[in-house]
Fold:
Amino acid sequence: MKKTLSLSKVYQFLEPGPVVMVSTSYKNKNDIMTMSWHTMMDFEPPIVGCVISNRNYSFENLMKTNECVINIPTAALAKKVVGCGNTSGRKINKFNQFHLTPKLASKVKAPLIDECYVNLECKVIDKKLGKKYNFFILQVLKAWINPAEKNQKTLHHHGKGVFSISGKKIKLPSKMK
Ligand SMILES: Cc1cc2nc3c(=O)[nH]c(=O)nc-3n(C[C@H](O)[C@H](O)[C@H](O)COP(=O)(O)O)c2cc1C
Structure:
């Protein structure tokens, strides 16, 4: 069972740049795409910028619905993560293909991916740069975490299919919040 994750803590999960899975839904057809080009833009409410190519089916869904969920997988899901990045929702249902479980979100129609340990329900608040740069600005409306998996290792993409898995955390006297 997941519990509510405070919106003030959302940035802590995205700032280190994990590979995420974006789920969308249009006319009851769900899709998932893998994404590593994202950035935190504000703390609270959490604002996230991301690049979603107009070649992707997810781009069409996002443009039409203005909603998505950013799902953060652990490294244990690596093969499914890459699978969702190598296939298109135009041709297959990725939830079925990769045995992932869609779960009802509370604020958006796009589904949560239950296997992911963090889920961020988002609405598009600015797509002015969507046509030119495929850039969307999202506001996180609701965030979920599975407390049992809080310290799990995340995947980080270095290009061309090379990934690292997050390692040991250290604490330093940083002035950043
Ligand atoms: C590790 C990884 C990271 C990716 N990052 C992005 C990204 O940031 N933006 C993007 O548009 N596509 C990215 N992709 C590619 C999409 O996931 C891919 O084009 C996918 O097939 C789109 O699915 P869709 O057509 O169902 O939307 C990435 C793929 C992988 C494997």
Summary: The chain has one domain: 3-165. The chain is about 15% helix and 35% strand. Residues 19, 31, 33-37, 51-53, 56-58, 82, 85, 87-89, 157 surround flavin mononucleotide (CB under 6 Å).
